[in-house]
Amino acid sequence: MIKSMRALKVAEDIVPVGEFKGQAARWLRHAAESGRPVVITQNGKTGRVLVSPSEYDRLTERQRFLESVALGLADAEAGRTMNTKELLRRLEERRLPGR
Known about the structure:
The protein contains five helices and three strands. It has two domains: 42 residues, YefM-like fold (3-Layer(aba) Sandwich); 41 residues.
């Protein structure tokens, strides 16, 4: 199942940096409990986006997966492919050192 980040609620999830500094623990808890990102503004513009550790892990895992897929597609388009027999032979060579 594909999981996505919960939608930002403008009235609840945007905080000026000054307020964030004074209530950091509250905002950290809010991000973790709500599952939504918290936008921290500076001079009226987005300065940073705070996400929970589990959401950060999910996002970075997804990014690594997408990069791997892109590399695989690039290999296929460049003709860097092999059949199953060749793959198994190479894996066996790696498994048995000194061969």
